[in-house]
Amino acid sequence: MKKDIEIANESKLEPIETIAKKAGIKDEYLIKYGNDKAKIDLAIMDELASKKDGKLILVTAINPTKAGEGKSTTTIGLVDGLALLNKNVIGCLREPSMGPVFGLKGGATGGGYAQVMPMVDINLHFTGDMHAITSANNLVSAVLDNSIYQGNPLNIDPEKVVFKRCLDMNDRTLRDVTIAQNKKSNGVERKDHFSITVATETMAVLCLAKDEKDFERRIGECVVAYTYDDKEVKIKDLGIVGSLGVLMRDALKPNLVQTLEHNPVLIHGGPFANIAHGCNSLIATKLGLKLADYVVTEAGFGSDLGAEKFLDIKCRIGELKPSAIVIVATCRSLKLNGGLSEDEIDSENLDALQKGIVNLEKHIDSMKHYGTPLCVAINRYLTDTPKEIAYLKDWCLSQGVEAVICEGYEKGGKGAMALGEKVIELCEEENHFKPLYPLNKKLTEKIETIAKEIYGAAKVEYTAEASEKLARFEKEGRGNYPICIAKTQNSLSDDPKLLGRPKDFSIHVKDVSLSNGAGFIVVYTGNILTMPGLPKHPNALDIGIKDNGEVYGIF
Fold first, then answer.
1. What angle do CA 218, 129, 199 make, to 5 degrees?
2. For the chain, how many structural domains are there in total?
């Protein structure tokens, strides 16, 4: 089979006006970026306000492995499959970060014959949203440090600045830096830190804001530092909310693109699920629900991260009710969880599959907490054997969940029609959706509920610093905030080496931070970092342009 980028380069795209018409978007709301992508003017929401919302389908997965689970591929294939079943459908995805594109993970636009296009543009600069978020975030830091330098009228303690600069690239050398060195004219010297753009509160605010005014309100509430007498300093105190609104004016508009089969997809916002809340923008999701009868969205990494945050943070803030949940799994990944090496997973091994299936078991159990109808999508690989597929399907039935084969990667929409039919059925079933925990619980109780019910942990251990901060947040009236746990994606635990379904482990909370504008508390566990590093052989070494102008190396 051809490589993803070869399929993408050979594809023929429809004019974006044609895709907009298919989605029910009038030309007057279309802001074109060339012939194949556009932004949508938010004024369209006034016209659609009285329209009934469609069905919301969440695609999640087991814990990611090097074998690949194909969550985005399944999501895009499902959009095309539902379209072939004559359903009015829109996909809602996150924007890829350039860090993983040039690092290890690669792009995030699907694969095979289930891709969104233009693949290269989306994985790189796209419509400039990431640059706008980076610029807005760093404007805050620049103005903050300038205020300290210019007489410090806000009485900011340089040792208590909590707002970090950012870059949309993996660069471990920027995790800990010292700024304003050598000369007094450079500013007040202090230690600083960089996060990757997708881990910033600025990104979280973009993705949880309901409109432009709500963005300005939320961004103004972000706590950036504390004074010498320990009082909060917020972005609104810096006097730059208006400037940030101008910088983010276009970035707040969702982006319209298409699948290889010319079905509409809104791509907007891109927080990581292991260090942020991992969901596309609320603005795009709500727009999709007004435009289509079925909206297919995904949440980053496994259900322990992206799906939990989608259901407990995004759905709560956005007053959303998902109609169905799809958990993606592969035989290959489950065999890795069962103890096989990467070199062994292409051969039939029912014993390893049986041992590794406990990882899927936990994800099913976790999603059952929310009361929403669900199914398993078996993202089929050519190396999967009939016995392995039969075993996996029978095992899922024994858990009270139906498993459906999805072949979107190889066959596009046709390969996902069976999954589409199952999802349509699920959307009509009885639905008792509710978040995992009430907001009136103490912060530590909410953390422990997630750790025990979703991860399967026996207990939670806190550093003294984390405990002190949590007590402070409670005292300041932030005890009713939801929790956003930053944790490795590779394991249900906070140890990336513990595969399968770990038992009797502890979650180690090393630090916490307040995302007051986004409206949640971030909890850092294990050795999680907010600025990734590059691998020994980054993808950046293998990307380039052919003589005919085609890009190669992006996947």
1. 60
2. 3
Q: Quick one: 19 and 135 in the same domain?
A: no
DSSP letter for 323, please: S
Query: Which pLDDT does position 68 carry in this prediction?
Result: 82
Scanning 265-416, the segments in alpha helix (DSSP H) are: 282-291, 308-309, 315-318, 331-337, 350-368, 386-398, 408-411
Q: Which residue has the tokens 């927080």?
A: 271
Q: For residue range 200-232, what is the model confidence (pLDDT) as tens digits?
A: 999 999 999 999 999 999 999 999 999 999 999
Q: In angstroms, rounded to a whole number, what is the distance separating the alpha carbons of residues 510 and 528? A: 9
Q: Is the preceding peptide bond at 322 cis, omega within 30 degrees of 0?
A: no
Q: How many Cβ atoms from other residues are within 10 Å of residue 149's Cβ?
A: 15
CATH of the domain at 60: 3.40.50.300
Verdict on whether the full-model pTM lies above 0.85: yes
* Token pair in block for residue 202: 């600025």
- Scanning 399-442, the segments in alpha helix (DSSP H) are 408-411, 417-427
- Cα 12 to Cα 482: distance, rounded to the nearest angstrom: 44
For residue 552, the cross-strand partners are 544
Q: Which two tokens stand for residue 421?
A: 């039919």
Residue (of 477, 478, 471) closest to 514 by Cα position: 478
* Tokens, residue 515: 């995302």
Are 231 and 271 part of one and the same domain? no
The answer to whether residue 276 sits within a structural domain is: yes
311 and 241 in a common domain: no
Sequence length of the chain is 555
How big is the CA angle at 127 (ends 202 and 534), to the nearest 5 degrees? 65
- Give the integer Cα–Cα distance in Å for 322 and 315: 8
Task: Pick the closest to residue 205 from 193, 196, 194, 217 (CA basis).
Answer: 217
Nearest Cα residue to 407 out of 398, 416, 420, 399: 416
Name the 3-class secondary structure at 513.
strand
Give the integer Cα–Cα distance in Å for 62 and 53. Answer: 29
CATH number at residue 448: 3.10.410.10
Q: pLDDT (tens digit, 9 = 90+) per residue, 402-416?
A: 999 999 999 999 999
Domain that holds residue 492: 443-525
